[in-house]
Design a protein that fits this description.
Distance between the termini: 55 Å
Largest sheet: 5 strands, mixed
Strand content: 35-45%
Radius of gyration: 16 Å
Shape: elongated
Helix content: 10-25%
Strand order of the largest sheet: 1-2-5-6-8
Structural class: mainly beta
C-alpha cells in the first residue's frame, strides 16, 4: 500500500518541471511556467487593456472587480525570438468594487526569467 503514494509522486514529477512559484517583495505568490508550447488555443487567455515593457519590467493593465493581484495570474513563457508570453487568470475576481480603469499588475524581467531588454510578444487579446 505504501508503494502507491510513491508511484503517484514519481508520476507527477514531470508535470512540475519548468514551473516556478515564489514570493516577490510584496509577498504575493508569482507563478512562471516555462513552456515548449504556449497553449493559447486551449486556455482562455485574459484580455488585457494595455501592455508596457520598459526593458526591465512588464506592466499589464487588466480588468478588475477590486481583488485582482499579481498572484491572480499564471505567466507562461515560450522561448524564442521573440519570447512569447501569456497571462492566464487562476480564478475569477468576484469582488464587487467599481474599477473602470482596471488594475496594473507588474513583473520584473528577473521574476519572469528573462534577460533585461529581451524582446517579448504578449499573446493575450487586447480589450479597450
Amino acid at each position: 500500500m505504501r508503494l502507491l503514494p510513491a508511484l503517484a509522486a514519481v508520476a507527477l514529477l514531470p508535470l512540475l518541471g519548468g514551473c516556478v512559484i515564489y514570493s516577490n517583495e510584496g509577498g504575493e505568490k508569482i507563478t512562471v511556467a516555462a513552456s515548449d508550447r504556449v497553449s493559447a488555443q486551449t486556455e482562455a487567455l485574459e484580455a488585457v487593456r494595455k501592455v508596457d515593457f520598459d526593458g526591465q519590467r512588464l506592466n499589464v493593465v487588466v480588468g478588475s472587480n477590486g481583488c485582482t493581484e499579481v498572484s491572480s495570474f499564471e505567466v507562461k513563457i515560450k522561448d524564442g525570438d521573440p519570447a512569447e508570453l501569456t497571462l492566464t487568470r487562476r480564478a475569477p475576481d468576484l469582488c464587487k468594487a467599481l474599477v473602470p480603469e482596471g488594475k496594473t499588475v507588474s513583473w520584473t524581467y528577473a521574476e519572469l526569467g528573462l534577460e533585461t531588454g529581451a524582446v517579448v510578444r504578449v499573446l493575450n487579446p487586447i480589450s479597450l
